[in-house]
């Protein structure tokens, strides 16, 4: 059985930083101590002197495009980009083709990931206005949670029947993740823009079309329904300051019925960046004002927002070059999410301990993931080794997402991921992803 010893690390875990060693056997952390000696001469030794070791990042929201949209990316390509970014576990969303709204389609994704994924995997089960019976059949120890689109949906995944929502919220015991934008508000705003600009709507209109009002109207309604029904909801990708008022920090995350997530792009960019970045920062929900960004940061730091994720959603450069109404929303982010957050650590905006809490511990706690998200004896050896003083610049040559571009092109990050370890296997080392895979299906302690 493979043995690995990480020496001289600055270990970041559960709100503390301490220097020590980590001994891994197979896929499990066996020992954590100030000093550990290798007893087996075949032990792989990694000297992490001067570097930080973090738990592997758990990304609770990605779109890896398989099946049906593989010209944009697939589970193999995007999970390779993920491990390059220190993400050892992902939860993929159901808006593929076909949609993941039946158990056979969910099983199909699991089979693809078992054969091709570089990172540990779980797949959200999608809800529609008429598949509650199928939702209630899912195995709660294998499915991370349910995903509902209350806006910006594809296919028939817009759940816009309030009675159906109430029924799902009251009957489903899994965490229900939500995309909240009010479609009627967006349609009215879009029509107004079309009346003004015709087909040449400038990208700077995006945050006005997919407005703060549209977000708040939908998310506030969802929160109110959750309170009425006892639903366990997790509101994805908050983008407005007003929405942060809907959440509180009075309870530990396991006891919260209503939780929230923020994504990297809403913490990094503002509407002032559309002029330079154009459609490459077109997401749904839209990147909004500096004031919104500041309020998101405030809510993240005071624990009203529980999780940081990516909403990784690649599109081709050709697709992104279309006119506003024909240009899809979304972009690649898994490779650069952790380096971006560590950039904020350098700036003193957030501590590295808080980054670990929001990107590693809390997703594990929120979704009841078994034996991941922490550096603990007996836990799976999902680890990231980071050199916080080894700058590198994002260029087309080092982007691993299949789409071949990034909104961070040209950015020089101060921190470099040297190793990503997935279940004891070195999945990534200094810009090279291992051809060997050791990913596992997620299990849940429910």
TrEMBL record:
Kindly list the cofactors needed.
Answer: Zn(2+)
Tell me the PANTHER family matching this sequence. Answer: ALLANTOINASE
A GO cellular component annotated for this chain's UniProt record is: cytoplasm
GO terms for biological process, alphabetical = purine nucleobase catabolic process
Q: Which purpose does this protein serve, as stated in its record?
A: Catalyzes the reversible cyclization of carbamoyl aspartate to dihydroorotate.
One GO molecular function term?
dihydroorotase activity
Q: Which family, according to the similarity comment?
A: Belongs to the metallo-dependent hydrolases superfamily. DHOase family. Class I DHOase subfamily.
> Which keywords does this Swiss-Prot/TrEMBL entry list?
Hydrolase, Metal-binding
Asked if Cytoplasm is a keyword of the record, the answer is: no
- SUPFAM superfamilies in alphabetical order: Composite domain of metallo-dependent hydrolases, Metallo-dependent hydrolases
Reading the lineage from the top rank, the first entry is Bacteria
> Key word Metal-binding present in the record?
yes
Domain (Amidohydrolase-related) spans: 52-426
The membrane spanning regions, by residue number, are none
User: What is the protein's name according to its record?
Assistant: Dihydroorotase
Organism, by scientific name, is Nonlabens tegetincola
Q: What class of enzyme is it?
A: hydrolase
Signal peptide from the UniProt entry: none
- The UniProt record lists the EC number as 3.5.2.3
- CDD domains on file: DHOase_IIb (cd01318)
Mind telling me which Gene3D superfamilies this protein's record contains? Metal-dependent hydrolases, Urease, subunit C, domain 1
